[in-house]
Write a structure and sequence with these properties.
CATH class: Alpha Beta
Protein name: Short-chain dehydrogenase/reductase SDR
InterPro entries: NAD(P)-bd_dom_sf, SDR_fam, SDR_oxidoreductase
Family: Belongs to the short-chain dehydrogenases/reductases (SDR) family.
CATH superfamily: NAD(P)-binding Rossmann-like Domain
CATH topology: Rossmann fold
Pfam families: adh_short (PF00106)
Length: 286
Amino acid sequence: MEAINNNNKVWYVTGTSTGIGLDLIELLLNNGNRVTAITRYPDQTIDELKKKDTKNLEKLLAIKTDITNDESVKESVKKTIEVHGRIDVVVNNSGYGFLGAVEELSADDVQKIYAVNVFGVYNVIRHTAPYLREQRSGLVLNISSYCGYSTIGGKYSAYESTKHAINGISNSLQKELEPFNVSVVLIGLGGIRTSFSSGGNFAATKNPIEEYKTNELIEMIKKYSPFAKGDPIKVAQTLYNLSNTTGKLPSSLDFGSDSYQIAKATYETRLKELEENRELTFSTDI
């Protein structure tokens, strides 16, 4: 892969009010790209960018959008095409976490996190893919987590299962869009020093069961998250670099040494179990 300098792309980015999303659109605008910022709080996004003395704000289209609402997403894509004329890079960055053992979760808890983390991604892809396919070019960056192939412990099932879903969506989407010269890269984030990992974007069960000690886990996250290794500025820069790279992009990338270590341990354990149970596995063949 070879990096190139192309600062005239149109980016469609979700989850831009804080964290990685905000850092990314700041970087994009400073480098002359045109950006559609998808957010529930466009005024907040614009105010934060002004505080950072962000350049080229005239190239920003901040649209109040509910990604869980199909029509809202459809209108935001339509508006992007009307204003910017095209879409080159789609970044599915919106999401939030939820803590609780399976039996502590209500049906509403599960439905809400899937509405944002999974169905919201489907909405965005469903309405942006036609433009990428028709123009025979583009890039989709789906932001997931090492939780999408591993588990960091109990009480994360709601969040982890949505990330497993994103991985599955990405794997299929890669095959579907590849014939049209559209790349899809799955990003497995490790811990990042943002409000997300410090608990700002993590909700928790309202019906804790004492035996599971979920409240202790919440306090632990708040305590250790400020020491997460991931730098959101470097994450944003790496995402930007991927868009300016020639050659075939990887189907997935892990960001952060913690994500690498967890991925490596997960794959090694899975392979070991696979071989240990090879005879039993083969025994079910006709």
